[in-house]
Write a structure and sequence with these properties.
mainly alpha, three-stranded antiparallel sheet, about 100 residues
Amino acid sequence: MSRRQRGPEVLWNPDTMARALDVSPFRVLELLKLELIPMPTMISDECFWVAAEVRAWAQKLGTVDPADAVAGCWARWQHETLETLQPKPKERAVRGGLGK
């Protein structure tokens, strides 16, 4: 008996996307809401990602692996959010001019 070889997956459902990104399916929804990952295509009221588009997105970010790409996006988002939440230091008022 010969086994039929499986071709490369063209569409990824949320579970496959979660495995590709090395995150939980719940995190995929969070990443979507934050617009950190490509938007899926809706087919019959279900979300699917085009595998080639996800790979191209990862390459555009300078990585080969979608998990590395999302890790970088997540770290950048956290850094930017932290900067927005931290109060900016106030400039000290200089009294009486320079050096006096």
